[in-house]
Amino acid sequence: MSHGAQSAVAPCSARSSAALSLAVRLAAVRYLSNSVAHVSAQQALPTTLPTSATVEISYNQAVYTGTIPTEFGQLTAVTSLDFGQNSLSGTLPTEIGLMTAIVTALGRRCGAQAARACHVNATHAKAIPMRMLEVPAETDCAHPPPPPLTHAKGFVGKNSLAGSIPTQLGQLTVMTDYFWTSQMSLTGAIPTQLGRLADLTGQFYIGSNNISSTIPTELGNCDQITHDFSLSSNLITGPLPTQLGRLSNITSAFRMYGNKISAAIPTQIGNLVKITSAMQLNENMYSGSVPTQVGRWASLNTVLQMFNNKLCADIPTELSALSANFTGDFKISTSNFFGTPCCEAVPETFTCAPTAAPSPQPTISPYPTPEPTSAPSITPVPSARPSPVPTSSPSDACSSSSEYRYKMILTDSGGDGWGGATFQISTDSTLRFSGTLATGSYAVEYFCLEDGEHTVVVSGGSSTTIDEACFEFDDIAGDSFRGCGAIEDAFHTSSGEIYGAPSPAPTISSVPTPLPSPSPSPAPSPLPSPL
Asked: How far apart are CA 285 and CA 431, in angstroms?
């Protein structure tokens, strides 16, 4: 039957039962308001689909049971969809992701540019097929349906749906009102594809399910949300992504309570400075100290909860200062470890910092010989006597902040000391350190040197024993250079490291063995006495 003149339909309040039946026959199914949904007990979801021209569907609080038909994915013109607060079961069809024109979950509008709907009187409810009524655009909206209930939770929330959240819902990229899949029995992971809902400005709710994944970092792309963001009361694990600090337009609530979220609270969470109602991080497994950046939540004045975690160290003064503005629940310290170092409170996660002491030194002769042995008398040309004061014992740090600590290992392959040979370390021709290996085969010396060029000299002793004298010079990085025998060369130090190590070949000749004195001529025999 053609619409023709019948398109000018009288206002809803003026229609008789017969006229309304005629309107039903002339128009395609489009919209059913809550006033119809509440007039009967639970009933199965309609199997007759709306027409392909349908732009607005609301089954909110319609007491429906059964499953959502996959054929709904064919309604690609729908811009408003609401299955909320029913008793629907089964899984959420992946085909819903084909309804890419969805903008809002509740779309009750009147006007020339918007889809229109009439308030169907409860007395006619049982006579109307349980399917959507598509009212012609010319319909009078003098009596539009009542506004959505302020507590209504739409889209698909508050049902008995199970299974996972389809990744295809990430295709609803023009959705702006809210994404609500809470208070059901959904399992599995939060799809990373939901990060494509970048135009969402209202609410994002996946709370009160059995989600057991980590939080996708991609959710940080939903940075236009201005109302609520909730993943509460699930089984979510892993850390709170730093990317959620981008949700800085949220003005009402950020709810993460009742999960298994671990690791430290990221500093970026301090960027959520517009929240006024609730910041709920309680009943998780957060550990570590609370970042001072939370002191930026100056607009928050109703609920701030961090109890039942593994937070440790001290409560930041910036956080404590917020309590002065609160009218509701400010609950932070209960069931945490505040006042205890984190390495003691949560040893499985934190390690107490070691002291500044260096690693244990070798157990063999860790300290220099108290007094160098005097040069043997057989040395033909004795070298300069070593400094009578031995190098100081190892310490944690040098006395000057511009100096760094180095180690010199002295060895003798013959096992009887250096035989009078000594080492000297000079800076700008000024003798800084000297010493020797008096006896044995091993000794260790420590020095503090500033950055710059220095000279090392090994000399003295006999020409037969000095080649047994060797040394190794080590820096804090574990690098070293070595030398044996008589040597004189320059090296550089910088920030505790050695550069320009001496060449292995000695640059000075060893002291030659002195020539023996000539044998004296025998004394002449005395002259004979004259006869």
From this structure: 61
